[in-house]
Amino acid sequence: MADAYRIAIVGSGPAGVSAAARAAQLGLSHVLLEKTDHLSDTIYKYQKGKHVMATPSQLVLRSDLDFDAGKREKILGTWDEQAAAAGISVRLNAEVTAITGVQGDFILTLADKSQIRAENIILSIGTQGNPNLLRVPGGHLPHVQYQLDDPGEYVDEHILVIGAGDAGIENAVGLATDPAQRNVVTILNRTADFSRAKDANVKGLFAMRDAGRLTVMPETAPNKVEPGYVTLDTRDGEARIRCDRIIARMGSAAPRGFVESCGAEMVDLEVKGRDGTMSIRKGPKPGTGIVFSSPDREAYPKLSPQFESAVPGIYVIGALAGYPLIKHCMNQGYDAVEFINGNTELKPADEPILENRFKNMPRRRSVDDWLGFLGDNVEILGGLSPLQMREFMLDSDVRAYRIGETVFEKDEPGSSLFAIASGSVEVSLPNGKGIRIPRGSIFGEVGLISGRRRGATIRAAEDSLLVEISRTAALKLMAQVPSAKRVVNRISTERQLLQMFGSGLTPEDLREVTDSAEIMTVRAGQAVIKENDTDTDIYVVRVGSMVVEKSIGGKPVFLSYLPAGSYVGEMAVIDGAPRSATVRAAIKSEVIKLSGEAFRRLIDAKPDLFDKAKKDMAGRQDLNAFVEAKKDSFSTVVDMYSSIANFLVDNGIGEATDVLLIDENLCVGCDNCEKACADSHEGLSRLDREAGRTYAHLHVPTSCRHCEHPHCMADCPPNAIHRGPDGEVFIDDSCIGCGNCQRNCPYGVIRMDKVPPKKPGLLSWLLFGAGPGPGEPDKKWSYKHADPGVEKPKKAIKCDMCSGIEGGPACVRACPTGAAIRVSPERFLTVSKLEKGDA
């Protein structure tokens, strides 16, 4: 006869062992089932010597077990001792393979075929046993692993860690900590942001990088694995590096099949065998067990505020419920047992923090009511469970705005995202009119995606409730909740198309086109359109840039450059002819792929848009005709221009919005550009004329390119880096001198330096010889005239395009020969410039 308990707890991670400790303390009949031969397998699988954090620090710990930040081994030892002292009923090597029955009479079947009966079940099995796999060619090879037990086991190896969440960072740091091991460690992050990891881990990673102990490769993903090597897709194209071992820490997902079967009604199911024969077996009836919030692999079970699943009597806690932090998990284990024991008045441990978040709201509601209200009324939050909503609101703010009140002004810095929970807001347009954004939608996504200053003034069109989501919280939300990412992508795509196409279009006009939209990541050099192909899809450059090439005499000739915000491919839709040119990514980019058929129906219905598309097409046709006409008589110049254009793209112009170029045929080496730059910026020059590379007569000096998506912004702790109204990327006075921007810039255009003492004026130097003269003072003069006893901190120094200085960039104004020019790539990189002899 099966053993019977009031509560069966499956999984002895932090949540499960805390639940068992509470059941023991209350004297409840219980059993803790663990499939391994030890408790707390979640922590046990951490790498040896790992420092475990106790975050969030403001959250109180309710568990009957102690937990403080410390070494993995100490925490495991403490829990083993306290579990034994508390009298927890444990069964090790007890893997649960099935859960059937109903509340009050559940049957848990174990791997050894024995059974256990329980009135209630707490599932705390976590997700780490079901890791996301490396799905690239060679990803199955034996040197690819998904767990790191002891970093000290590996010596003299080239090791690649994939994934820059907490686990990946800790693995990489652990492998690189001891120099005696002589490991060459590299960690990859698919994006430029480290939104999934704790701040302390990110800082520790960069400290190791700065010490030369490991390499961090952002915006990089694996492409192919082979014995001894791995091929990577980097922001600059493919790279093949030596690799003896890959540790893939790319997250994990719930063992969905097992979870959905728990408590499900068992019915006869028809199963098709590999040989095509059909058979009948017993299986769970779909939808009758534990229900997930969506079909996405990363989705979590639907739960009540008391952690109860769709199956009465089965409670889900811990990482399986979407709460990966240990302190959260332990509190949930305590609370779940209290709920089962009838304590319906118990409030979550984060209740006081969230009450404070909502205390100034115009209506009196409980925390649960507020969370439910926000989840029901804000589309981006619709996929979050009540438990996820609680964690989300710990990092977000909600505020009431009166009608007419300004949310933010045009050109203000800001990268947070706003969601409209009630009311609406109005976007002020230059013509004095406004666009209404309704309840449920979002705004501020441009600052979130690109880091640009606010593009318009936003005011409350009526009394409204808005949720402000910090950039970090928004990126984390999009990374962890697929439905939220889809909402942001859909809305940002719709608004980009409306802005780009214009012609009086409405969101409803674009519905079919936006429904067809697919956001694609394109590696550097990869073609999205190939010459002579017959497809008709349209491509919008969302991030990065593209180059257009045409084959002339068997060689690719550079035609033009397409920055973010451009679109291409309409010619095939309008004239039905094969593709006339190849379009490839200049750098790692994102494009929005739109159905050509849907676009055809749109332009057929909208004559103004059709006229605009024909005008754009005519420009491209003229360019093609120009190249064809010049291919014989002008071939040498065309080849020279194409070579120069490719050189500029290879040197970072492909992601620039504004770049300084110097015509070596005109430059006389007077250095007036550097001196003027220094005199305009507290005595510190932002450019190095002699540095950089040259092709033919064009020189690219070391000066900021003001990238469309600046690498320097990726990890700025005080958010001191912003984009100005004219596209300039600048650093404000909140800079703390950490140097992250300098390290992240791939072009070496940021320096860390102290602001020198103020120099005497130019007239004083001319008449009396006072001061060091024009330009940046030498170190000897700066040291001699520094304030005694005052040690000035270093700060990040970079070109700001002379923002706020009348007349524009000083480097250009000071050039006596016109050799220095600042240009946007799209104006410079087009073969049509040859008509004027500009190449």
Question: Could you give the topology of this structure?
Answer:
Blueprint: E1 3-10, H1 14-26, E2 30-33, H2 41-44, E3 51-52, E4 70-71, H3 72-86, E5 90-91, E6 96-102, E7 105-110, E8 115-123, E9 144-145, E10 158-162, H4 166-176, E11 184-188, H5 199-210, E12 214-217, E13 221-226, E14 229-234, E15 237-242, E16 245-248, H6 256-261, E17 266-272, E18 278-284, E19 314-316, H7 326-340, H8 351-358, H9 367-377, H10 386-393, E20 396-401, E21 406-408, E22 417-422, E23 425-428, E24 434-437, E25 442-443, H11 445-450, E26 458-460, E27 464-469, H12 471-480, H13 482-501, H14 511-515, E28 518-522, E29 527-529, E30 538-543, E31 545-552, E32 555-563, E33 567-568, H15 570-575, E34 582-585, E35 589-594, H16 596-605, H17 607-630, H18 635-650, E36 659-663, H19 672-679, E37 688-695, E38 698-702, E39 721-723, E40 729-731, H20 740-744, E41 751-753, H21 762-768, H22 779-784, E42 795-797, H23 810-813, E43 820-823, H24 825-828
Parallel strand pairs: 1-2, 1-8, 2-5, 8-19, 9-16, 10-11, 10-16, 11-12
Antiparallel strand pairs: 3-4, 6-7, 7-8, 13-14, 14-15, 17-18, 20-27, 21-26, 22-25, 22-27, 23-24, 23-26, 28-35, 29-34, 30-33, 30-35, 31-32, 31-34, 36-38, 36-43, 37-38, 39-40, 41-42
Helix pairs in contact: 1-7, 4-5, 9-10, 12-13, 16-17
